[in-house]
Design brief:
The protein is an alpha+beta fold and 93 residues long. The protein has a single domain, classed as Alpha-Beta Plaits (2-Layer Sandwich). The protein is built from four helices and four strands, in the order ααβαββαβ. Strands 1-4 form a two-stranded antiparallel sheet. Strands 2-3 form a two-stranded antiparallel ribbon. A hairpin with a 5-residue loop joins strand 2 and strand 3. The protein is globular and about 30 Å long. The protein binds iron/sulfur cluster (2 copies). One iron/sulfur cluster (SF4) binds next to helix 4.
Length: 93
């Protein structure tokens, strides 16, 4: 099964909520998911930057975007909001 499909299935199962239930979920307390950008699909609109709830998306000098792994929690909002499908969620090693 493709990685982003597995990610969406996990979210439907509410694993993000269940794993840390009752505990604060801080930026960087990531599950096993991390966003990856596909530059060939990205039009540098900045929506992923706007929608990230933890300020974990940053803009690089060339106008493309990347993730700050120390802040990202793996929620996948950037992946969901990217209207060009330029962000996929990858399972971390
Ligand atoms: S939302 Fe998608 S197309 Fe827009 S800057 Fe982010 S990755 Fe690129
Ligand atoms: S998965 Fe995307 S939206 Fe969620 S915290 Fe990480 S960079 Fe931000």
């Amino acid at each position: 099964m493709e990685s982003s499909v597995r990610f969406q299935k996990k979210m439907i199962e509410c694993s993000l909520l269940e794993k840390d239930r009752g505990k604060p979920f801080r930026p960087g307390d990531r599950l096993e998911w991390i966003p990856e950008w596909d530059r060939d699909k990205c039009i540098r609109c900045g929506l992923c930057y706007v929608y990230c709830p933890d300020g974990a998306v940053y803009r690089m000098d060339d106008g493309f975007f990347e993730v700050d792994k120390d802040r990202c929690k793996g929620c996948g909002i950037c992946h969901r909001e990217c209207w060009f499908g330029a962000i996929s969620m990858a399972e971390e090693e």
